[in-house]
Structures are given as C-alpha cells and as structure tokens.
Design brief:
heterodimer, A: alpha+beta, 5-stranded antiparallel β-sheet, 7 helices, B: 186 residues, mainly alpha, Rna Polymerase Sigma Factor, Chain: A, 0% strand, globular, disordered N terminus
Chain lengths: 259, 186
C-alpha cells in the first residue's frame, strides 16, 4: 500500500508536478510537465491536495455581500440569461405553487444579464430597426405579433404598440407608442421573454436586454436575446436601475405582451 | 475542519446543462469555501475578489468536466479554487525554485497507514495527513493551505530549501497515494 501511486513518474517529474500544484510552475516548465504527465494523473494530485486543503480548514468565512452581488452579475454575463436569487428557496416555492401567466403579471420574478445599449447607439439603430421590423412583417410568414397591454406601473398607462417575433430568425422588434422617456442615468427599461419551451420558464424568463426610450411618440427596439427562444409565451417590460438588475423587485412592471 | 462530505444534490451537472438556478445555488453553497481558500492563500486584499470571481467563472465553464466518481463536488470546487489562485501566482511570476531534484526516499511501511479506514473524504484526508511526521505535516499545510512558496517556508522556518522541498514532495506523494487508494477501494 505504501508504493507511490505516482511511481511511474521520475523524480524530476514528481518534483515538477508538486511544484505545479502547490506554487505554479513558470510556463516553460509547466509545458515540460504536461508533455510527461497525463492530465488526468495531474488532476488526481490536485484533487488530493484539495481534499487535504478542505480537511485542514478550521474555519469557513462568509464572503462580503458585495462580492456575492458581483458574482451573480458575472453569472448572468456568463449564462446570458436570468438567474434567480436564493434558488433553493425559490425551488421549494415552485414545488408548492404553480404560477399562471395571470399570476405572473402581478408577481413577476425575474433576473438576468444586462446588455446596456448606449443612447446614441440606440438612436442610430432606431431607423434600421423600424425598417427591419417592417420587412419582417412583410416577409416572415412565421413571425408572430402580440400587442402590448399596460402593466400595473402607471408608466404603461397610455402604452400602445406590439411585439413582432420570428423564432426561425431568433429576431424580433418591439414597437412602443407613448412609452415615457427614461433617464438612462436613473433607470432603464428591461425586456424579459418567457419561453415555455424551457424548464421553469415561468420563474426564469430569458433576458432580452435593457434599452432606453427617448422623447417621441413611437420607437422601435430590436430584440436580441442571449439564449435561443423557441416558444415565447409572453414578453414583459420592467423599469430597472441603470444596467438592469439581477433580481427584479417587480416594482415597475410596465408592459406585457402575451402570445 | 471543513467537511467534504458530498451533498446529495449535485449542482455542477445542472450548471453544465445551463440551469441558471443551479448557478445561483452554486454561489450560495460554495462561495464561503472558495472565499476562505482564496483569502488564506492570496493574503493581499488587492485583487482577492477578482480571483474569487475568476474561480466561479472557471467553475461554470468546466462544470461539464466534473466526474462524481473521482471526487465529491466540493473537492472539485476546492481544486478549481486552488488552480485559479495558483494561476494568479504564476501570472505574478512568483515562480518556484525547481532545482535540487532529489530521488524520494522509500518510505517504511507504516502501521498507521494500514489503519486508515474508508471514511468520507475529509476523514481520509485528515488520516492521510496524520500518517505524516509532525514537521512534514506542518510544512505541507504551510504550502497547501497558506499558499506559501517553498522559499517563503524556508525563510519562515530556517530550514534549508532542499529539505523543505524533499519533505513536501514525499509527504504529498504519500498523502495523495493514500487518498487515491481510498478512491480505488470505494
């Protein structure tokens, strides 16, 4: 039992391997080591050290709250769609309560990554978006259209317009009439797409990005979801802080468009 | 001692499938361990949070590589955490001195080694450490847990660098051999 599991390694290889997993070798020596050692064997050594490390920790310290918030934002950036805070608790809730779309309108739980559009980029793209929307309506037989209805937030009280979406092209456009302009320094609108082809779609909408609305009667905004949307059931607009949010407090549910 | 007893529900396979709630649960479950490992090894507050974020991004990227037959999930998380901290050391050119490659001595059969029972991973790890001589164990913990370079350990203990390297290499080889043996028996 006492013979080394790394007996196939010569002394220099073993020395390099242990230096690598404890301190990190310079790149040249790291490359030499990788030529000699199977990656799985090196990982076995790393796992052994990880076990030793865990077993030797006497106390575990909670990370700063601000770091946890940044990690959730990074998670959204990595996955490109919504994540839900406190997942175990949410999961338990989902087991006991099945939300309907009607319930969602009053209790929208949403989280996700923010794709911030600079105002001037938005302005320059607006005309293109309007043209592209018109083209989609004219040429995309499979595109679907859903009218906006006002959400509980007064911002959507006079809202008109609709959403055009093409699943085959993974592209869509939102047209708004009388949606109040936002101040990008204070808040931004955020789109959420409820894709019924996804697990837990009612609680985990796909993030459609944030956008700004300037003064004017009508605006058209392109939709560029981070994930494939296969079966959209509802589009929702919330007003959030600049850059968007990870978890929506659903204080400002502005508009809904159900398919 | 941090328990490395596996959780019954695994998060990494769910993350590999793109489940966002598993990503959130991963942060909630493993951020204390990752933070503790990184803080102890990195020491300097500057850049510490960046390292922790790099660790989690790496976890999400490599979640599909996690193999529950080789290690518990928390051990895999700890391995990734250590790997990213060590990558940081490498970037900072905190290179080890790699001369003095001694042929490891053949270790005598140790009765304690035979008495290692199959337990959870934390227990195995502690028992593997306990088969080592106290000085050897102390040097290993300075290296593994505190993230000290062999040169820093030499400066701290006054022991020759070659002696430190030899102790650490032999000790880790021995501990890793015991731990790998535990996996093969289980």
């Amino acid at each position: 039992m006492n013979s080394s599991h790394f007996a196939g390694w010569d002394a220099r290889t073993l020395a390099l391997a242990i230096d690598e997993v404890t301190q990190g070798l310079p790149h040249q020596e790291q490359a030499q080591l990788r030529e000699k050692v199977d990656a799985k064997d090196l990982e076995a050594l790393e796992l052994a050290l990880a076990e030793i490390h865990l077993a030797s920790l006497e106390t575990i310290e909670a990370p700063p709250v601000e770091l946890l918030a940044r990690l959730r934002t990074r998670a959204g950036n990595h996955l490109g769609h919504a994540i839900v805070a406190d997942a175990p608790r949410r999961a338990a809730q989902r087991q006991s309560v099945k939300w309907s779309l009607r319930e969602l309108t009053g209790w929208l739980v949403a989280a996700g990554l923010i794709l911030a559009f600079a105002v001037r980029q938005f302005a320059s793209q607006r005309q293109d978006s309007a043209s592209a929307r018109a083209s989609m309506l004219a040429n995309e037989a499979g595109s679907v259209v859903a009218d906006w209805s006002a959400g509980p937030d007064p911002l959507g009280a006079n809202l008109g317009g609709n959403v055009v979406w093409s699943t085959s092209k993974q592209e869509g456009y939102m047209r708004f009439r009388s949606l109040p302009a936002n101040d990008p320094k204070r808040n931004q609108y955020q789109l959420w797409i409820f894709d019924s082809a996804r697990e837990d779609w009612e609680s985990q909408p796909v993030d459609g990005g944030v956008f700004d609305v300037g003064p004017g009667e009508e605006v058209v905004v392109a939709i560029s979801p981070k994930l494939e949307v296969r079966k959209p059931a509802m589009f929702a607009i919330t007003l959030e802080r600049p850059g968007g949010v990870v978890v929506s407090k659903r204080d400002h549910l502005v508009a809904l468009a159900k398919l | 001692m941090a328990s490395s007893q596996p959780y019954t529900d695994l998060l990494l396979p769910s993350i590999a499938r793109g489940d966002p709630s598993a990503v959130e649960a991963c942060i909630a479950r493993y951020s204390p361990i990752v933070w503790t490992i990184a803080k102890r090894m990195v020491k300097e507050p500057f850049g510490l949070e960046d390292v922790v974020q790099e660790i989690f991004v790496e976890l999400w990227k490599t979640a599909h590589r996690f193999d529950p037959s080789k290690a518990s999930e928390i051990t895999y998380v700890a391995m990734i955490a250590r790997r990213k901290v060590i990558d940081r050391f490498r970037r900072e050119a905190r290179a080890p001195v790699t001369e003095n490659y001694e042929e490891p001595e053949t270790l005598a059969e140790d009765e304690a080694l035979e008495q290692v029972d199959k337990q959870d991973e934390a227990s195995w790890a502690m028992r593997a450490l306990n088969t080592l001589k106290p000085d050897q164990r102390r040097l290993i913990l300075m290296s593994v847990v505190d993230g000290l370079t062999h040169q820093e350990i030499a400066a701290s203990t006054g022991l020759p660098l070659g002696t430190i390297k030899s102790h650490i290499r032999r000790g880790l080889d021995r501990a890793a051999t015991i731990l790998r043996g535990s996996k093969e028996e289980s």
